[in-house]
């Protein structure tokens, strides 16, 4: 996720104060982790420096002055380029799960126990996500579905690895000739 582009997206519809941007972010993306005000203002400062936003107005209040930020043409172009560019698929070729299985075998521990413990944790998390999905709105459903599909793929890998554990153990522990 690029926080800069997220903020530009909120500003494209209309100029906004940092407070409004944070509220929109938290409403749409911060369900599990809210955005800190410091992140908002540091990102706006960087966008301002790079010419992607301008300060459209300043309002005096009881505290610090409130700046209203607006997106520039360069910001619109940057946002459009980011939205049009596909994200790199993450193949996870050296996952922590695989590393734990190999290290368990190499250290004489039970790789089957590692797989069983991980399977139980995946299932627990999947139950939690399913509850959240059923109780939530469409955004929750989509977010939870994405996570559930990834966890299902991990579970398939755990099962496949468990089925191949004897072969993997033999290959990792055979002595070179």
UniProtKB/TrEMBL annotation:
Residues 7-80 form the Transcription regulator PadR N-terminal domain. Transmembrane segments: none annotated. It holds the Pfam family PadR. InterPro entries: Tscrpt_reg_PadR_N (IPR005149), WH-like_DNA-bd_sf (IPR036388), WH_DNA-bd_sf (IPR036390). PANTHER family: NEGATIVE TRANSCRIPTION REGULATOR PADR, TRANSCRIPTIONAL REGULATOR YQJI. This is PadR family transcriptional regulator.
């Amino acid at each position: 996720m690029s926080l800069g582009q997220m903020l530009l997206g909120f500003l494209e519809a209309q100029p906004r104060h940092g407070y409004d941007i944070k509220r929109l972010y938290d409403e749409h993306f911060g369900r599990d982790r809210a955005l800190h005000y410091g992140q908002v203002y540091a990102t706006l400062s960087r966008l301002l420096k790079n010419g992607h936003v301008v300060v459209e107005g300043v309002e005096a209040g009881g505290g610090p002055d409130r700046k209203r930020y607006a997106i520039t043409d360069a910001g619109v172009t940057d946002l459009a380029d980011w939205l049009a560019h596909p994200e790199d698929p993450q193949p996870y070729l050296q996952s922590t799960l695989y590393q734990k299985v190999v290290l368990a075998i190499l250290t004489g521990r039970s790789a089957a126990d590692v797989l069983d413990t991980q399977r139980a944790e995946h299932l627990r998390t999947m139950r939690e996500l399913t509850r959240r999905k059923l109780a939530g709105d469409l955004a929750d459903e989509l977010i939870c579905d994405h996570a559930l599909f990834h966890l299902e793929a991990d579970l398939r890998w755990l099962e496949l690895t468990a089925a191949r554990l004897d072969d993997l153990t033999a290959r990792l522990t055979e002595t070179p000739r």
